[in-house]
Amino acid sequence: MSEKLKGTLKYCGILFLVLVPIYFLVYRLFWPEVPRNEAINTSLMYGIINVIFLGALRHFLKRDGTEEPQEGGQ
Question: Alpha-carbon distance 30 to 25, whole Å?
Fold first, then answer.
């Protein structure tokens, strides 16, 4: 596994652990009438969707340090 992929997986794990509780708290604070189980399921669903999108975006936009040096200019 490449270092770039390992970094992306760490990023996704941390992002998931941060986003899901935030989504849950927002649901419970703004919509207290929403059942707890539904808030948990929705938080997990949105957390997974965000992690997939942001993880892929980070992976493909992050430089891995293997590109060739640029020519010209001082």
Answer: 8
